[in-house]
Amino acid sequence: MYRDMGKIYNDLVAHIPVNQVLRNEPMKNHTSFKIGGPADIVVIPSRVEHIRHIMVTCQKWSIPFLIMGNGSNLLVRDKGIRGVVIKMSGLFNQIWVEGTCIRAQSGTLLSVLAKKALQAGLAGLEFASGIPGTLGGAVAMNAGAYGGEMKDVVDWVQVMDYGGEIYNFNRDELQFGYRTSYIQGKPFVVIEVNLSLKPGDPEESRALINELARRRRDKQPLSLPSAGSVFKRPEGYYAGKLIESAGLKGFRIGDAQVSEKHAGFIVNLGEATAKDVIMLIEIIKQRVKEFTGVELEQEIRIVGEE
Q1: I need a surface site. Which of 10, 81, 200, 253 has the fewest CB within 10 A?
Q2: Tens of pLDDT along 239-251?
Q3: Distance CA 306, CA 303 (A)
Q4: Which residue out of 181, 229, 259, 287 is catalytically annotated?
């Protein structure tokens, strides 16, 4: 426990509505894995001023903080998170359509954004319709699916540093790569993103979105809690096929299981712990290395106390 969390809580609720500041909050309620111990404080900001105040408060009390989106790529350890969690999804999600551009706050879900683009007759974001994360996280890691990536549509990004200063980065400055960008891992919080799209046929966009949704349903274990693809795609290979070739499809530790539908996913069968998942990840890495010589690189983010 860092200092007096009661005083920090009081400092936060002096500027942020009390129902947006949660104490001793189970993180399993905020991740798609449905796993994770309690965080000391979870704050769900709805305004830029809230985010700035959280930063100032954390600096003032010298306590750690974690920035998360929708928790769709996150595994929280069983003892939870000390300090403050800033959950960008939920309330920080305004969207503005401006011609062929869509500007949105970073907590906006990609699925909602893709639907908004469809309604506005704009094309180019269909690939993101089934990605379960937020816009901010998607930009930071250059999320992609079915041949599309965020780098294809991002025009500029506005960020706040941990001191509360605002900066803008254009597409070139963001230095997008495979599942990475300049701002990933930097001391920034994504505030807004401007997407440059193109006029499209809504019926064609809707048909493409429906087709991509069908492919996901057919191939991915959407009926069970998971954090999506556990590993990045190794160059020249598919992680799921490597894991399957190592004989691990369906292998489980506790209630954490290599999906029987897609071996690139680990699913929670009901009562999986973070410890179960982490042990399973290590076994997968070792076994795939032994059987194929390929070293898998983890894509999901693991946070919290051991």
Answers
A1: 10
A2: 999 999 999 999 9
A3: 9
A4: 229
Choosing from 23, 179, 216, 252, the catalytic residue is 179
Question: Does 72 participate in catalysis according to the annotation?
Answer: no
- 216 catalytic? Reply is no
Asked if the 222-303 domain carries CATH number 3.40.50.150, the reply is: no
Helix (H) or strand (E) holding 251: none
Domain definitions of the chain by residue range? 5-87, 95-204, 222-303
The CA–CA distances, whole Å, from 31 to 27, 38, 57, 238, 298 equal 7, 12, 25, 25, 17
Per-residue pLDDT of 199-221, as tens digits, reads 999 999 999 999 999 999 999 99
Catalytic, 229? Answer yes
Q: What is the number of other CB atoms lying within 10 angstroms of the CB of residue 10?
A: 11
Place of tokens 């309620």: 29
Assess if CATH 2.40.160.30 describes domain 95-204.
Answer: no
Query: In the CATH scheme, what is the code of domain 5-87?
Result: 3.30.43.10
**Taking the model in full, what pTM does it have?**
0.94
Alpha carbons 167 and 62: distance in angstroms, whole number: 24
